[in-house]
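New to this. Please check this record:
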Amino acid sequence: MAVTLNELAKVTQNPLNKAVIMDLLRQSKVLQMSPIESVPGLQITSARWQALPASSTRAINGSYTESTGTLENTKETLFVYGKQTCRFYAQA
């Protein structure tokens, strides 16, 4: 289940962890809205754009040309070295 940092700050008991979370929330509006999801294992599968859809203009009452992009599946693997977590990207 994904939670935001706001929700995590409400339930955190450790004062140091809560201070770090509150500092992150004060510094970044993006982190206020971004969901944080726990990973059940050390690998997750996601999709990313391989080619973006094209955009164009058209005349009034002109025909519409549909453009779709293509997605590719990727696997992200987490490796833990000491107390730091590093992410490496590998294509599926």
About this structure: The mean pLDDT is 81. Residues 40-54+65-92 form one domain. The chain has two domains: 1-38, 40-54+65-92. The first strand starts at residue 2 and ends at 4.
